[in-house]
Amino acid sequence: MPIPSSLVTLLVGMALVLSGLWVGYNVDLLPLDASANAPVYDSLFRVLFSIGTILFLGIVGLVVFSLVRFRRRSGDHTDGLAIEGNLLLEIVWTAIPAVVVLFVGIYSYDIYERMGGMSSLNDHSAMHRMPSMETMEASVTTADPALDATGSGPLKAPRVWGGIGTAAGEANVLPVEVTAMQFAFIFHYPEGDITSGELHVPNGRPVELRMKANDVIHAFWVPQFRLKQDVIPGQPTVLTFTPTKAGSYPIICAELCGPYHGGMRSTVVVHEPEAYDAWLQKNSPVTATVAVAAGNPTA
Ligand SMILES: [Cu+2]
C-alpha cells in the first residue's frame, strides 16, 4: 500500500521543525553570558535561530528537491505545464510569513521590555545622585530645554534621551559617567572621583552608565553583556546592567565614528566585590595623595 503524500508532507514538516529546534537550542553561536539580561536575550536568539533554520532547511530543501524531481528528461522537448495562479497556495504562502513576522515582532518587543528598554529613563532615583550630570548637561547645548528659561537660573534635572537597562531604579546602583570621543571611552566614577580608561565594576551590583559624546555618534557595546547603546552628542543616554560573571570583556565602539573607529576599544573588568574595593582604594585620588606624601611611589 503506497503512503499518501499528505502523510509524507506531515512527516517531512515534523522532521524540519524538530531539526530546526535542535539546531537553535544546541548550536551555540553566542559568546559567554556575563550579565543578568544575557539569558533573556539568548532565549530570543534561540527562537529566532530555530525559525531561521527551519525556513532555511525548508526552502533550500524544496529548491533542491524541485531541481532533481522536475528536471528536463533527455528527449523531452515539450513545453512545461501552463499554470495560472493558485489561490490556496498564495493564501498559504502569505499567511505563514505574516504569522511568523507578527510572532517575532511581538516576542522581540516583550524581550526588549524585559531588558528595560521601555522603562522610564527620567524619573528613577539613581540620576538624582549624580550632581555632575548638571555640568555634563550644561556643556551639551545652551538651547537645551533643561536649562532655565532665562539661561542663567539653576538647571533642572537633565533629560535622558534614550537608553536601556534592567537595573533602573534599583537600590545600590553604581553610577559611572562615560564620555565617548574619537577614539576612546573615558570612565568617571562620581563616588570616589576616579577617572579611568577601563571600566571596572563589582560582580552582582547594578551599574548605571550615563553616557555622553564629545564629537560624533559612538555606540557602547559589550557582546558578553548582550547590550549596545548609542552615545550621541547633545543627547545623554543611559545603559544599566548587572554583571554576573567575573572576568575581562571587550568594550567595542559599534558605530562607524571616523578613521580609527576600528581601534576604539576598551575593556570592562568585572571584579569580585573585594577585588573591586581594592581597585577603588588603589585608584582613589585621596589614597594616592596620601601614599605619595608618605613617600610610597608604588601606590
Ligand atoms: Cu566610536
Automatic annotation (TrEMBL):
Keywords: Copper, Electron transport, Membrane, Metal-binding, Respiratory chain, Translocase, Transmembrane, Transmembrane helix, Transport. CDD domains: CuRO_HCO_II_like_5. Signal peptide: none annotated. Its EC number is 7.1.1.9. It catalyses: 4 Fe(II)-[cytochrome c] + O2 + 8 H(+)(in) = 4 Fe(III)-[cytochrome c] + 2 H2O + 4 H(+)(out). It is a multi-pass membrane protein. Its cofactor is Cu cation. SUPFAM superfamilies: Cupredoxins, Cytochrome c oxidase subunit II-like, transmembrane region. Pfam families: COX2, COX2_TM. This is Cytochrome c oxidase subunit 2.
